Amino acid sequence: MGRELSLTSELLKNKFMKKIPRDAEASNVLIGEVDFLEKPFVSFVRLSQATTLGGLTEVPVPTRFLFILLGPPGKTKSYNEIGRAIATLMVDDLFSDVAYKARDRDDLIAGVDEFLDEVIVLPPGEWDPKIRIEPPKKVPSAEMRKSVLNLNELGQMNGSAGGANIAYVGPLPWYCSDIYDGFHIQSISAVLFIYLGCITNAITFGGLLGDATDNYQGVMESFLGTALAGTVFCLFGGQPLIILSSTGPILIFEKLLYEFSKNNSIDYMELRLWIGLHACFQCFVLVLSDASYIIKYMTRFTEEGFSSLISFIFISDAIKKMAGALKYYPINRGFKPDYITSYKCECIAPDQGESVKSGSHQCFNQIVLIKCYPFNLTDMDWTQLSKKECEKYGGALVGNACKYVPDLALMSFILFFGTYSMTVSLKKFKFSRYFPTKLRSLISDFAIIISILIFCGLDCLLELETPKLHVPTEIKPTRSDRGWLVMPFGKNPWWWYVASFIPALLVTILIFMDQQISAVIVNRKENKLKKGCGYHLDLFWVGILMAVCSFMGLPWYVAATVISIAHIDSLKMESETSAPGEQPQFLGVREQRLTGILVFVLTGLSVFLAPILQYIPMPVLYGVFLYMGVASLSGIQFWERIKLYLMPLKHQPDFSFLRHVPLRRVHLFTLVQIVCLAVLWILKSTFLAIIFPVMILGLMVVRKLLDLMFSQHDLAWLDDLLPDKDKKKKEDEKKKKKEKKAAEPESDEEVGEMLQTQIYGVIIPQTEPDPVCINPPTQNQASECKYTEHFLNV
After folding, report:
1. Buried-most residue among 116, 279, 470, 688 (CB within 10 A)?
2. Which domain of life is it from (predicted)?
3. For residue 213, is it within any domain?
């Protein structure tokens, strides 16, 4: 029996060890009564190296600190309270730092005083636990929101080529870890998720590029360009978490450039090549001149406006694609099951005379009839033909059921919303109470893949002809009259080689703004990235890839905001040592290059995976697009402030900015952002979308004007302060002078009346000050001041 209890105890200890953070050290508080002491004896010991002291601790954790209190009998309660006070001190981050660095008794006493200065005391008789304010789920940091930018990287360099020097040196110390950090099961989920997003994006933009450029660039070019540019960027770029893709402004530029070339009898591919070469050169100039330094003026205001716009574009495009299903597969809204016998659709032979007269069906001309078809159409039983065969041979569909396609539209919406809803539910599954912790985390990591597989299986089970993913099966250019290499000379006049420098300026601004704003969003402080940013190096490789893609006739690529955010979300790490019931802490992102490389290698191999990929319904991928757009909005303060408009005051969350900024000022700041977002959306929907990057610069101008509407204090909580240190300093000095002037007594009579001191809202007579809790609190921390007072007396 005793052996079984011992085994059970060991198992419990092993489970408890899993909840203890790695490299944790123990502090042992030992108190006792002895009859050979006349007064208490206290000793505080710090070991030079943490050592496991046998069975002193409940679990085998090495001990660093020992607190020993021995005293004469009769004061057990006081000794216990002192022990509790020491235990409270040792779990406090502030005091534990002091304990590690203390050199003598005075340092420890100073640490205790510092701890007491940060404590709030609640009178036990007046505090009812039932009416207390619940602590926030995420305790905000006491520090102000720091800049996401690495100033050592973005700062101006002494001498030329500063950005280039950093570009080459930056990622080298981390390169090996960027590879082996990717060997984790979480990376598999991230690769499959981002891969499906990338091929869907490549097919969508490839089709749009084919329509805009008369198939000079199509789906095949989009696949190869995505694979080439993405692989090279993830191998050599400064921030491999960024995913490259084609974007809307680039698509609009390509369309305008092709129309201009067509109207002026200019060779489109050759002109595009020279624009790409000039843009590559201009990117090099921006790198050498440290132009990326401008992004330190991109505050939260600009970041949130840009990322919100891209997220809404993803959401709206997904919904528009699904709305198109009702057009291609219309629903018979007036269908009555009882009259199903009256619904029919059949194919009838065409009127040959009409066909010859209209010229729409040349094969029905009796002269060419035999050449077009190896059989006689007049002897064909037209009523037995399928819909596609009837249209192919020029027949006519007759009947009241011909214009409707049953089931497909509704089934597409089921696949669309089902994929999105299940993905959201499975992502939250790790917070449920079912299954072990590791299994819940695994299901959450593979939520998107599980959802796709389930609804692909449902589609195959029902055997409906829903629209499927179509991938090219041969590696050849979309147009048969072009090759894989564009020659720079011979088709256009020589002066076009120089004049193309001007449109290249617009492309460079477009590339620079898209790339750097997306990089700022990826590198924001909230993601806790540790391996650097790589702004200069990223821009350098984007310029190189523009030149390579221009020579091969492939689309241009730049950082894709939403897919990059989805990449980061799929690689987030959380603590595995949280106690039962405690929310796991966000530790950071798994920073590595392996997932990005695998994603783009698989994209290039998709041509050979076409037989498998053709079973994936497009509504399922549109559901993934919808999830990516909605998920990228989570955690954006702008979106949280929009929701405040619809919340009564008593139900508003405990955001830190609401404690320091009046609600009406918060609403005004949010309204300005909404107006800016609406203007960007309107511009995006017109031909002016090509100047979209310039409008992002307009957001920076609006942010500068906000300094005239809001105080620096309000902007510090709602946004980031612009790099103008004197402004904030002057405002703080002005505020201090005003407070000092208000605190000075006006007469001696007022000084005589100030014989009482206000401590924590309670007026007491002026007496000998209490040794604890004298200074006003600055943080909301729990404490046991009563027990600490006993310790100080000892």
Report:
1. 279
2. Eukaryota
3. yes
